[in-house]
Structure formats: structure tokens, C-alpha cells
Prior knowledge:
Elements: E1 2-3, H1 7-18, E2 24-26, H2 32-38, E3 47-49, E4 63-66, H3 71-83, E5 87-90, E6 103-107, E7 110-114, H4 120-135, E8 150-155, H5 166-173, E9 177-180, H6 186-189, E10 197-200, H7 208-224, E11 228-233, H8 243-252, E12 257-260, H9 265-272, E13 286-290, H10 304-309, E14 313-317, H11 323-333, E15 340-345, E16 353-358, H12 362-369, E17 375-379, H13 382-386, H14 392-406
Parallel strand pairs: 1-2, 1-4, 2-3, 4-5, 8-11, 8-12, 9-10, 9-11, 13-14
Antiparallel strand pairs: 6-7, 14-17, 15-16, 15-17
Helix pairs in contact: 7-8, 11-12
Bound molecules: S-adenosylmethionine.
Amino acid sequence: MVVGGGTVAQRRIPTLLAAGADVVVVSPEVTPAVEGMAGGRGTGELTWVRRGFEPADLDEAWYVVAATDRPEVNEAVSAAAEERRVFCVRSDDGEAATAWTPASGRHDGVTVAVLGNREPRRSAALRDDILAALRDGRLAAPHAHDRTPEVVLVGGGPGDPDLATAAARHALASADVVVADRLAPRELLDELPAHVELVDVAKLPRGRSALQEEINRLLVERVAAGQRVVRFKGGDPFVFGRGFEEVIACREAGVPVSVVPGVTSAIAVPARAGIPVTHRGIAHEVSVVSGHLPPGHPESLVNWGALGAQCGTLVLLMAVDNAPAIATALMRGGRATDTPVAVVQEGTMPGERMVWSRLETLAEDLAAGGVRPPAVIVVGDVVAVAAPDRYADRLALRAARRRARVSGGDDGARG
Length: 415
Ligand SMILES: C[S@@+](CC[C@H](N)C(=O)[O-])C[C@H]1O[C@@H](n2cnc3c(N)ncnc32)[C@H](O)[C@@H]1O
């Protein structure tokens, strides 16, 4: 039973729901978030009784949260709870309550709850420290299954160790061996305990498919030898990361395999550089495309002409070498020659640098800027939104087209 529907109640309710409680809120008014949890016509996660508190409300209650902003109401709730021998916490006066809420949080199936002698700030600070230590592996609480031999495919994010997920750090903390790609965040490898073996696959014998076969063989061999293997990759394992080939190889060999998704460079590198990949009124679509094969290559699976005919955002990975040919194909397909382009090299890493360009000058700008992989290339008017001073002409053109469309004088042409 939660009495009150303001922001204090709003903060308490999700934990109660997550614990499986049957939550009833009594309050004449509630915040929009609490109303959302109540849903319409009894379909919500909780029951909202839309009136003031009455002592009989507690007849069936197991636990009461008095969270109104009126001390006399909280006092009445507290007294009614005491009469019925129901534990009651009070948001306004911890001393007067029969129960206290610990500062709590969860990590990987473990609940941490801290009671700091009724010093809520101290409890919260200690709770945060414990959770941080669990998340980054300083405090180990291994599951039984953390020690079972398995391949865990881990996406480490685009480079900045802060963009690795808590799940990625947890997986690394439980590894016997880490098989790392060149683009996997290097700083996280430095945090591995000394007993963890690091296999740098960039150093395995060269040749693209031979290399992949060798990685697959290595993963299977190590698990068969009873080790827990983290296959550590940059970004997300399934975004041009050949991750699923490794999943298939493990399955074929009968080796257990699981996946920890990562923050992909396709979205995060532009975002960190201040470029949104979508923006209201500018781009209603975003395509993430590999540029490792040039347009017209017999093995290419990309319809560059169709991408040229679209007006949404294009995010190109592995495209530095083929960027001039790609720009030409996009313009041939229909993209305007002055379409803004931003190139972010080594995004989120200490060496991050940017080149601003347009489709028609991309080849020269990349050469003049000495751009090297890894780089993400963003094509489209979202780049103009991110740098309005550089691309004022594009924004003015769009605004003029929009005005013409609204007044019915233009066909809404793209470009
Ligand atoms: C083989 S793909 C792997 C992509 C990765 N799985 C992901 O989700 O980010 C490698 C390409 O990703 C892009 N990339 C990855 N990390 C990058 C970074 N920090 N800065 C710029 N581009 C990056 C580059 O285009 C690079 O050539």
C-alpha cells in the first residue's frame, strides 16, 4: 500500500513492482508516471484508488509506504498501520516509522541493501560504491555459472572504456582467456588480472578467412580444455563484427556460447562527436552500411544506387579507402552533390579527429585530412544540424523547400 502519488511514491513503486508486490496506490492525485503505471481500465501494473486515505485501506496490506507531503496524513497512516501490526515506512519522519527503507540497488541478480544508521546519504554513498565495485569487477560475486567453460562474445563499445557496458566488464572479470580484436577497447585489457591469458588475434597468421577459421578453432579448443573464453570485440559483435560466424562455429562444435551486446560505433561515434543519426524533420531513416567493397564489386551486396535515391542518414563503416567511389555512386543515384558529410576518425578515443566535407569534395578532403581507419563516415543533413554554421546553405535550402511544400508549390523533392 502506497499512500500518496507524488515523486516520492514514484521513486519507491518500481522497486516494489520489481519485487513482485501487488501495489495499491491511494491518492487523489498522482504524477503522470504513476498514472502510466496504473494504466487504463485495470490493465496497469498497479491499482490506483483515486481518493484520500482511509484507515480501512490497510486492512489487507502487508507493508505500507506513507509518502504524502502532509505530515498529519502520514501520521494517520502510521497509526492505522501500527493498530493492524503492519510495517510502515514514512517519507517525512524516519524516526517515527516502524520500518526503514535501505538504500538499495541491483547488479546481476544480486540486491545490495545498505542501512546506515538512518543516515540516508551515507547509505546511498556506500550502496553506490558497492555497486560500482561489483560492476567493474573489483568486488567479485561469481555465479556458479561464471566458472563454467563457455565462449562469451562481448561487444566492448567504440573505444572509450566508459562506453563498455557493465555486462561486458562482468564477463571480462570472469574470463580465463580473452581473445581480443584490434578494435576492442585496449584500456580494459589493462585491467585484467595477471592470471588471465590474453590472445591478441591481430597477431595470428594473416589472411582474412584463414584468420577467422583460426579464431573459431581457438575458441572451441579452449572451451574443450575447460576454460571460460571471452571473445572481445569492438562495438557490437553483430554489427560487421563477424560475431555470428563465431556463434555458428561454436554451435557446430557443440560448445556453449552467449552474447553480450555492445554500443556500436555506428551510432556512438557520431553521437560523441555531436552528430545525431536521426533528427525530427531532417532524417526519418538511418542506414548502416559497410564500405569495405567498392560499388560495382562483384561480391558487393549493397545497392548504392538505391542508397543514393534515399534521403535519410547513411553511416558508412570500413569505408575510408572506398569513400571516393562511394560518393560518386551516391551522387549518381541521386544524392545532391552538396550533401554534408562528416568523418570521425578514432571516435571516443584519445586520437579522435574530424573532417567536415560534402559528397562532391569528399575524396579531396579525406586525402587532405590524411584520414585513416578506423573512421565512421556520416552522410546526410543531420551533419548540417550538428554544424549549422558550416552548412548554413543546406539548412536554408531545406527550410525553403519545406516552406514551398507547405504552400503546395513543391513536390517535396529530396536531395
Ligand atoms: C569491422 S567493423 C566493426 C564494427 C563494430 N562491430 C561496431 O559495432 O562498432 C570496423 C569499423 O567500425 C568503425 N569503427 C569502429 N570503432 C571505431 C571508432 N572508435 N572510431 C571510428 N570508427 C570506428 C570503423 O569504420 C571500422 O573500420
